[in-house]
């Protein structure tokens, strides 16, 4: 309604007698799936069902990718089955009412893949992009993800990286994390 009426995203008089809509947009609607409302005439209840289906399907797809790339000898059929199990897990089915939580479910397998890439001395760019996407689309859950990332990488660097290379890997991880936070600050800093 705001887009159709030409209202500003900074302040809207349509909600609660007037409110700062930018923070609402960033915290709850800042993902590509929310833009479907602009291009379709599907009723809201059916659109939400479609968005949940798309997010859980993509979560299953990214999990299949993670399983296939991480588990040696994992067949495509096994990876797809594990991905479907991930997509239909209790978290996904419980959080279908909280659409932002499903964005994290979709991005976590990609984050795990990119963190393993850093640990194997690969490029930190996939990690930077994935962490940025998590912090932009899932503001309220991203702090829990960041706590997990710090603990996971600290243990992984300590246990899997030779002492002579730990500083270099840690620096790549730290710089990519700081850049991701800086890029995502366009969402959380103004709010």
Can you tell me about this structure?
Helix 7 runs parallel beside helix 9 (139-160) and helix 9 packs antiparallel against helix 10. The protein has 191 residues and is mainly α. It has helices spanning 2-5, 21-29, 36-39, 44-70, 76-87, 90-94, 99-119, 125-137, 139-160, 166-188. It is 73% helix and 0% strand. The protein contains 10 helices and no strands.
In short:
The protein has 191 residues and is mainly α.
What profile does the largest beta sheet have?
none
> What structural class should be given to the helix and strand makeup?
mainly alpha
Number of helices: 10
What is the string of SSEs from the N terminus onward? HHHHHHHHHH
Overall spatial form: flat
Separation, N- and C-terminal Cα atoms: 22 Å
- Using only C-alpha atoms, the radius of gyration works out to 19 Å
Query: Which percent bin holds the helix content?
Result: over 70%
Tell me what portion of residues adopts beta-strand conformation: under 5%
Tell me, rounded to a whole number, the average pLDDT.
86
Q: Tell me the total number of β-strands.
A: 0
> Which regions are unreliable across 5 or more consecutive residues at pLDDT < 50?
none
């Amino acid at each position: 309604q705001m887009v159709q009426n030409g209202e500003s995203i900074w302040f809207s008089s349509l909600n609660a007698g007037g409110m700062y809509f930018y923070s609402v947009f960033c915290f709850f609607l800042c993902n590509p799936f929310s833009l479907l409302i602009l291009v379709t005439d599907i009723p809201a209840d059916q659109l939400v069902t479609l968005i949940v289906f798309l997010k859980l399907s993509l979560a299953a797809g990214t999990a299949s990718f993670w399983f296939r790339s991480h588990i040696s000898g994992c067949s495509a059929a096994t990876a797809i089955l594990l991905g479907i199990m991930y997509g239909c897990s209790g978290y996904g089915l419980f959080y279908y009412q909280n659409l932002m939580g499903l964005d994290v479910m979709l991005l976590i397998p990609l984050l795990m893949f990119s963190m393993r890439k850093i640990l194997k001395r690969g490029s930190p760019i996939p990690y930077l992009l994935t962490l940025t996407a998590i912090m932009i689309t899932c503001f309220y859950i991203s702090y829990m993800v960041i706590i997990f990332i710090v603990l996971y990488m600290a243990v992984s660097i300590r246990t899997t990286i030779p002492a002579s290379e730990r500083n270099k890997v840690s620096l790549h991880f730290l710089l990519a994390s700081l850049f991701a936070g800086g890029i995502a600050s366009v969402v959380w800093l103004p709010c």
